[in-house]
Design goal:
This protein has 172 residues and is α+β, with helices and mostly antiparallel strands. Helices cover 33% and strands 12% of the residues. The protein has a domain at 11-118. It has helices at 11-18, 55-64, 83-97, 105-114, 124-136; strands at residues 34-38, 47-51, 71-75, 141-143, 150-152. The protein is elongated and about 65 Å long.
């Protein structure tokens, strides 16, 4: 992981295009007012956007149409090597940097259009996170209450049906 993270070519342009006509007060700051860094090792967040001014000053600048000042986006170093999740996380943080501070449906819709979240099979980080959750759960296998068939737990949520008898799954 030599050096800091870099914004992939065309990502800022896609974010700006997706924000066209929407209330994004700091959109002009995306073209040069952002620095990227890796978050400290062990940080649980995938990404974070930091403005140097406090939230009162930030809302004041937003209301008056002033630039937000320096912006730093921190990206978790586990995303180094997971290109799709890196782009998805960075697009999410770029929207915050543009002034979309809330996590609402609008925010999610734009991120999905610009850099969709990878499927589990496409992301080593997501697979690792799933394995970590599965290993911490008390049940290591599922057992059908109808036929007694047991199978290894491969997902966090309870299955709908038994793979052997196809009856609705009931926990023992």
């Amino acid at each position: 992981m030599p050096g800091g993270p870099e914004i992939p070519d065309g990502l800022i342009e896609r974010v700006i295009l997706a924000l066209d006509g929407r209330d994004a007060p700091f959109i002009k700051s995306l073209d040069g007012g952002i620095s990227l860094e890796w978050l400290e090792s062990g940080d649980s967040r995938l990404g974070i956007t930091r403005f140097e001014c406090d939230h009162n000053e930030l809302y004041r600048r937003r209301r008056l149409g002033l630039p937000p000042g320096p912006i730093t986006i921190g990206i978790n170093s586990i995303l180094d090597g997971d290109e799709k999740l890196f782009k998805h996380t960075l697009a999410h943080e770029l929207l915050h940097a543009a002034g979309l501070l809330e996590h609402d449906g609008n925010h999610a819709e734009i991120v999905k259009a610009v850099a969709p979240s990878p499927k589990l099979s496409e992301s080593p980080v997501l697979r690792g996170m799933r394995e970590e959750v599965l290993s911490s759960l008390p049940e290591r296998q599922w057992i059908c209450g109808n036929c007694g068939h047991s199978w290894e737990r491969m997902r966090v949520t309870r299955p709908d049906r038994c793979p052997k008898c196809a009856r609705s799954f009931t926990a023992p």
